[in-house]
Each structure stands twice: as structure tokens, then as C-alpha cells.
């Protein structure tokens, strides 16, 4: 809301550079395994991570940036690590939120382990494979005649939070792929699916063997089916698909073509 009121399109928050509703650079500090590592990522202490953000500055040339931080000193360190100029304005949370809102935010974080990231859920699913994500729509008006502030954010709950761990069976992936194949006229059937989990929970690799239908451009159809599988699996499971390999093992010739 603060950025919207000031016409600011770029936000730095917890290791990410966000342009409007899109993450354009960085790695979220909320993925870090420890609190110390979280702080380091949020401050861009790693020169390589800072360099990525600086490259984005050169590419997008933002006129103004809103930096989110928990203290004046944190903002200062972020500025220094990213070679940003002096601040033109400082807005404190007490200027834009009530005591009740702040108390509720603290309670939810402490009791439920929830964190909010200022981008839509679909935008961050790749970065948060293995985390539980919930969409959050914010509607807020500052007065009778003021334009309402409407935005979609994301709530993330790490798997190590109060919810415990969750697992997705390989059968789920197979069933999604089979369903998509039935909806694709160029794929006769799925012969085999192999799912390889990436160590550390960062996603999966998928190997698929199919029989295609005679008369279609095999390469083009496999490419389209691959994109469809990746999109639907990531959308429905929140798991990151590292790679999908599809092999055409045969061609089905309809009866009238034999």
C-alpha cells in the first residue's frame, strides 16, 4: 500500500527484488535453513547474490525503490551492500498500521509460523517448492473518498513449522500426467512415468514414455505436452519441476489409416 500510494514499482524484501507483482531477481531469505542464514540473505551479505540484484538495477533502471526492513540499521546495510544512494524518506510501521494490526501479525507469526511475501502465489511456487502456500487477497481503504488498495500476496508456511512435514506420492504425478494425456489428441497413451526426487527437497525430475498418434508433428507435440505437464504439476502440487524428459516409444495408427 505504501509503494502504491507513492507510485513505487520496485520493492526489496527478504532477499528479493520485486517489480509490481513479479519477482525479477534474488532468492528469498525465507528459504534459509537457519535464522542466521536468513539474516545474511536479507542483507545481501553474499557478494554473488548482491551482484544479481545490481544487474537487475542496470537492466530495469528503477526510478525509486521501497526497501522493507526491521530496523534503520538493516536498511543501511542493505543500501551499502547494493550500492544504493541515500534515503529520501523513511516510513515506520507505526505510521501505516494500527497497534491492533501489529499485535495480530505478531500473534499469527509466533503461533502459526506464517509469513507474507508481496507477490501472487503462482509467481513464487518455483522458489518455494516443498513449502505450503496460500493466496492472500488484501482489500483496504484509508477513507471514505480514498481509492481502495487491492492486492494479491502469498502466505508461506515452511514444512518445518507447526504443520509438520507433508509428502506427495509418485502416483499423484502419474495421475496428473495420465489425465493430461487423455485431454491431448496427439498422445495415445502414457507407457511409463519415473519420478526422481532431488536431494534436499528442491523438486523432482520426471521421465515419461508415450505413444503418439500418427499424423502429428511428434517433436512439436511432445514439446507442448511437456510444457502442459510442467505447468499443471507445479500449479497443483507446488513442487518445482527441475526437468521433464519425454520419449516417444511408438506411434499409434488409427484403424482407418491402416
What does this structure look like?
The structure is a single chain. This protein is of the alpha+beta class and 258 residues long. Helix content is 36%, strand content 27%. The protein contains nine helices and ten strands. It has helices at 2-5, 35-43, 47-60, 72-81, 93-96, 99-112, 121-124, 170-182, 218-237, and strands spanning 10-13, 16-19, 22-26, 65-67, 115-117, 132-140, 149-157, 187-197, 204-213, 241-252.
Oligomer: single chain
What does the largest sheet look like? 4 strands, mixed
Distance between the termini: 64 Å
| Domain unit count | 2
Spatial ordering of strands, largest sheet? 3-2-1-4
Order of helices and strands: HEEEHHEHHHEHEEHEEHE
> What is Rg?
23 Å
Average pLDDT, all residues = 81
Secondary structural class: alpha+beta
Q: What is the number of strand segments? A: 10
Which stretches are low in confidence, meaning pLDDT under 50 for 5 or more residues running? 158-164
Helix content: 25-40%
Features of the shown structure:
single chain; 258 residues; alpha+beta; Alpha-Beta Plaits; 2 domains; 3-stranded antiparallel sheet; 9 helices
Summarize the structure.
With 258 residues, the chain is of the alpha+beta class. Helices cover 36% and strands 27% of the residues. The protein is built from nine helices and ten strands.
Amino acid at each position: 500500500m505504501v509503494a502504491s500510494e507513492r507510485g513505487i514499482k520496485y520493492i526489496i524484501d527478504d532477499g528479493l527484488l520485486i517489480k509490481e507483482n513479479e519477482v525479477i531477481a534474488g532468492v528469498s531469505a525465507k528459504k534459509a535453513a537457519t535464522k542466521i542464514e536468513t539474516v545474511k540473505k536479507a542483507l545481501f551479505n553474499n557478494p554473488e547474490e548482491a551482484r544479481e540484484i545490481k544487474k537487475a538495477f542496470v537492466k530495469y533502471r528503477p526510478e525509486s525503490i521501497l526497501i522493507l526492513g526491521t530496523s534503520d540499521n538493516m536498511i543501511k546495510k542493505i543500501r551499502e551492500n547494493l550500492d544504493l544512494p541515500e534515503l529520501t524518506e523513511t516510513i515506520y510501521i507505526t505510521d501505516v498500521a494500527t497497534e491492533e494490526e501489529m499485535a495480530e501479525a505478531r500473534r499469527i507469526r509466533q503461533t502459526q509460523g506464517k509469513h507474507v511475501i508481496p507477490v501472487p502465489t503462482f509467481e513464487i511456487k518455483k522458489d518455494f517448492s516443498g513449502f505450503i502456500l496460500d493466496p492472500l487477497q488484501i482489500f483496504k481503504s484509508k477513507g471514505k473518498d480514498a481509492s481502495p488498495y487491492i492486492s494479491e500476496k502469498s502466505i508461506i508456511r515452511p514444512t518445518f513449522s507447526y504443520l509438520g512435514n507433508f509428502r506427495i506420492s509418485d502416483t499423484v504425478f502419474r495421475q496428473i500426467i495420465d489425465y493430461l494425456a487423455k485431454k491431448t489428441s496427439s498422445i495415445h497413451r502414457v507407457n511409463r512415468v519415473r519420478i526422481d526426487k532431488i536431494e534436499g527437497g528442491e523438486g523432482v525430475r520426471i521421465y515419461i514414455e508415450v505413444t503418439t498418434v500418427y499424423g502429428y508433428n511428434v517433436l512439436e507435440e511432445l514439446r507442448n505436452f511437456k510444457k502442459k505437464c510442467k505447468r499443471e504439476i507445479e500449479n497443483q502440487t507446488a513442487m518445482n519441476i527441475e526437468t521433464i524428459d519425454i520419449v516417444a516409444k511408438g506411434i499409434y495408427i488409427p484403424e482407418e489409416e491402416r
